[in-house]
Amino acid sequence: MVCGGFTCSKNALCSLNVVYMMVGLLLIAVAAWGKGFGLVSSIHIIGGVIAVGVFLLLIAMVGLVGAVHHHQVMLFFYMVILFIVFLFQFGVSCSCLAMNRGQQETLLNSAWGMLHNRTKVELENKLNCCGLLDTNATHAQFDLDVSTCNAPCKHTNCLHCGDMMLDHASEVLKILGGVGLFFSFTEILGVWLAVRYRNQKDPRANPSAFL
Predict the structure, then answer these.
(1) d(Cα 62, Cα 55) in Å, to the nearest integer?
(2) Under-70 pLDDT residues of the chain
(3) CA-to-CA distance for 4 and 16, rounded, in angstroms?
(4) Helix and strand tally (H, E) in the chain?
(5) Beta-carbon count within 10 A of 112 CB
(6) Structural contact between residues 166 and 108, judged by C-beta atoms closer than 8 angstroms
(7) How far apart are CA 95 and CA 51, in angstroms?
(8) Residues 118, 124, 126, 128, CA torsion sign
């Protein structure tokens, strides 16, 4: 059977959906890892990546079932939704890679200002740091945070929590952006395979096709 045949298209589409499921799980895992590090959870783009991962995982399951059973309706919705996921994932991935340190600082300062003082102290203890960022615009708030900080490092030499979080956030965003951007292009391949496979005739439905 040539590679353009029904069986080859079916196997290729099934394999691609298994890869999508793995990518979805990877995106969720990396984003959750970054989200669990404190204020990285306040960056809304992390939530967007988790949403893409979950949605990609679900649509891959639909595509896998549709490919196995050659289900016309499921394959149609799979094609449409996968293309929408491609657009969304491409946009989120580009945002991850394009976000510079200044934009991250702005988001971090905004999120820090909305936190309760008790939550700030808990984060400082967890990360073993004091204060967020000591800049001209946030110097007064930084001094106030340091005065209420009781992290173990306070009596030695504490790092700024903002610097630790930004370094970690940059690492997470680069991983998420790179993985998401690379695999977003494979989704176009998935749409093309689904269209091709959906329009092919199942040989089992017509025994004379083998003659």
Answers:
(1) 11
(2) 1-4, 34-46, 203-211
(3) 16
(4) 7, 0
(5) 22
(6) yes
(7) 15
(8) negative
Nearest residue to 52 (alpha-carbon basis) of 37, 31, 35: 31
- 195: tokens are 């269209």
| 169 Cβ neighbours under 8 A, 6+ residues apart | 34, 40, 43, 104, 108
pTM of the model: 0.63
Going by C-beta distance under 8 Å and a sequence separation of 6 or more, which residues neighbour residue 102? none
Query: Given its phi and psi angles, is residue 131 left (phi above 0), alpha (psi -120 to 50 degrees) or beta?
Result: left
Q: What is the DSSP secondary structure assignment for residue 115, as one 8-state letter?
A: S
DSSP β-bridge partners for residue 204: none
If you search the block for the tokens 């045949």, which residue do you land on? 5
Q: Return mean pLDDT, the chain.
A: 79
Locate 92 and state its tokens: 């989120």
Instruction: Write the single-letter amino acid at 161.
Output: C
Q: Is the dihedral of CA 110, 157, 149, 134 positive or negative?
A: negative
In DSSP notation, 130-183 reads --S---TTTHHHHHHHHHH---GGGGS-PBPHHHHHHHHHHHHHHHHHHHHHHH
Q: How far apart are CA 125 and CA 67, in angstroms?
A: 51
Amino acid at 32: A
Q: Which runs of consecutive H residues, i.e. helices, occur in the chain?
A: 6-35, 44-69, 72-98, 101-114, 117-127, 139-148, 161-198
Residues 24, 53: contact at Cβ < 8 Å?
Answer: yes
What is the rounded CA–CA span in Å between residue 30 and residue 185? 20
